[in-house]
Amino acid sequence: MASAAPMAELVLGIESSCDEMAASVVRSGRQVLSSVVSSQDEVHAPYGGVVPELASRDHARVVSGVAEAALSEAAVDLEALDGIAVTAGPGLVGSLLVGLSFAKALAYRARCPLVAVHHLAGHLAAAELADEKLEAPYLGLVVSGGHTALYRVESDVEPRLLGQTLDDAVGEAFDKVAKLLGLGFPGGPAVSRVAENGDPEAVNFPRPMAKKAGLDFSYSGLKTAVALEVARRGGTEALSEAAVADVAASFEAAAVESLVVRARRALRGEGLERIAVVGGVAANRRLRVELGAQGEREGFGVTFPPPALCTDNAVMIAAAGARLLGRGESDGLDLGAFSRVPVGEAPWRHGPQ
Ligand code: KG4
Ligand code: ZN
Ligand 1 pocket check: which of 311, 313, 315, 341 to mutate, most ligand atoms within 8 Å of Cβ? Predict the structure, then answer.
């Protein structure tokens, strides 16, 4: 059971894998003493997407203030920490390196252990922290800007990948559709907001991979279908507010339906009774409502962390780190950053896993 696992006491988490610099102090892997997130929406908005070089520069500018704020909000001295957990991958290497270098320096100064956390294992830890009823085995659905994947999560072994996107991630599709509709950055929340005033049946967009068996996803065809629809209507500039809302709602309905169909298929196939949905797109209202309703109809449990723990944050890194430290794992100060790392692998950790 997740809550019975040994946990390190006071852990500072640091997350900087993409465009959020975040720090958090968590007690015993569960009790959130502070959570500070510095977002870069204004930095990247003019470009309609994350610019890696600008992301790492802004991280370097704010990292020490964010970590200091997390410690002072928690009223915890650096010396009192039992460990520091930091995201080592996957993510943008320049962004990761800022958090990583800072975490190493802090661990050296505090003379406490440092532990590397897999970003997606962090997202899954957010669900376990948010929901005490969530016990392995369960189905984990990770839906973010970089990932769309289903995992079987067990208590004693690493999560097993069941299916993933063959091309774009679902969050990436939300971001690209937002751009096509002239809705700015970040796209997911903007599409979701205008979709509330639209008709989800206005445009019958293809349901990605609807006729394909298995648990993989695909979002590039849906994104292209939205681009063609916008072009057919005379381009972004020609769209009325009502048309933008209808296209957004119809896209959102198709994107969510494909997540729900595969989640149900995986639950049945794996004989699981609970699903946890994590990552930025788990903040999506339509997904929360549709999957929640399916769960009630079909008798499976659904866990969504609160929206602030769905998007990137350091609470999840501290919580995942508390468990690793509790198991006696830690990493050296030669720890490196990794842009691509399958879940369950820890290329930064030497020796037996
Ligand atoms: O987990 P996250 O913060 O960063 C990554 O690890 O990628 O996820 C960010 C993604 C972005 O693509 C963003 O547009 C999407 O999550 N997102 C949403 C919503 N809030 C964030 N997508 C749909 N609806 C939302 N409410
Ligand atoms: Zn993430």
Answer: 311
